[in-house]
Amino acid sequence: IVGVEVFSSLSYGTTAGSWWLCKTTCTSYTNTSMAASSSGYSRMLFSLRKYTNKSQSLYHIDTNFVIRTIWTSGSKKQLKTKVQTKSLPQMVGVVGLEIHAQIQSTSKLFSGSHVRFLAPPNSLVSYFDASLPGTLPVLNRRCVEAAVLTGLALNCTINRKSLFDRKHYFYADMPAGYQITQQRLPIAVDGTLVYSLFEGRRRNQVVTKSVKIKQIQLEQDSGKSLHDNEQSQTLIDLNRAGVGLMELVMEPEMCCGEEAAAAVRELQLILQALGTCQGNMAEGQLRVDANVSVHRPGEPMGVRTEVKNINSVRHMAKAIDYEIQRQMEVLQSGGTVLNETRAFDSKSGNTIPMRDKEGLQDYRFMPEPNLPPLFVYESEASVPVGVDSAQVVVIDRLSAQLPELPSVRRTRLVETYGILREHSLTLVNEDGLMDFFESVVQMTKVEPRKVIGWVMNELMGNLNLQSLKVSQSPISPCALAELINLVESGHISSSTAKQVFQEMWKAPEKTVGQIVKEQDLWMINDKEELRKICQRIVDRYTEEVQIIRGGNKKVLNKLMGEVQRETKGRTDPVQVKAILEEMIS
Fold it and tell me: What is the pTM of this model?
């Protein structure tokens, strides 16, 4: 008789669910010759059930487990135990990004047409944008300066000479049949983006990581196709055609959606600080293409898929995590990941296939014949004789214009105000929050650490609860500073202040003083009145008083809580404790 006990400690944590299998026991009966031929080892196929929040699905995984074979016979020999272990490394995700940032400029990259969001269709189109015969491109110097500034902020090497190319493909919203870009020699290469994110069990540990920037290239945007399914027609709006873009290519060095989201958010802050891109993803000013694959560490990279045109940091993180999980499940079930382009459906949270990329598309790159090489100069002294330095791009001049970048800003906040690093990360990453915090600090005399508590806990807690931006807060920095000053001066208690904060949130038209007066929330500072209140509590809880006199001082906290409850939090706990101790002793 042969009994087999199989122990597996398989734990596979994912964003969608977890694999669960702790112990499987299989007992079989066979003859002696079969048992002997098995040599005490088995390789078996098990069914694991994966539980998710939405559905259940059954997967079969061919893997190796720890197997103990128990031999029994008519003799009284001891059981023989043999163990063999073998496991494959867990698959990991690999993420690279291509980001198209719309350059903040009043005119397009190669024409004088204005750039404006939500303008009437085809109202901002020049002859060149419409690709009429005989029109020639004229390079916008502002776009070149924006690309150089961005490259400097990302520690890139600025190429003193760069070239423009034609990338041919035929879309209805690309009237020329090609896009002017920089394939061979872009304006900036070999940069680094340093970003931070929260990790740890409590999500309060700040971890700093970096990703390499392969290149930054200038290129023109396409128009916009508007599909009318009811009329079975497609309308073309060329307002966006020719708008200047910076394409930033990040190396595949990230492993999940959270890392990619942190990197894109940091880039967004940098571009906004530089003034080179407004970074409004809802308006298409920052669009992300995510290249996602999975593999086992030490093995070659897997087949990648590209998730196109993601216009939200939150959606991007969800799309990447879903795609990593999808590819893992395909491979674990014996399937093959296809090299394809996919789109993210924000309603279902899934990526859906758009087109395959198995066939290598020939873009027929060729040098742009109507644009000479682009030269930028290191300093004023390097500008050739006879060339007006005001009409060229000088790197030293742009370096002097670099503003305070987000990483420097966080360091300054920590050093100036003595706040925690994780607080500085939130202050800088949330639009307008740093300005709000600094305004409150300037209008109060309390320590910045006390202000940060109000900003992080009360303000951000209410904003997140209602999905509001800092600019939409019903409480102004001035009103919050007034409330904090009342607490610091001893006119109201901290617990009362939190009640007042909620009332201010509901009725922003009322001042702090009005709310405190209407609800009679001023602090009770009269010692005689405090003694009377404390005496009533002592008389009411005689049993607790005897316990305290017996040596259990912790029960005193209950009496202090009763005083606070009776006074609606309008007493100073330190004073209350002193009075109670005096009465009970």
Answer: 0.78
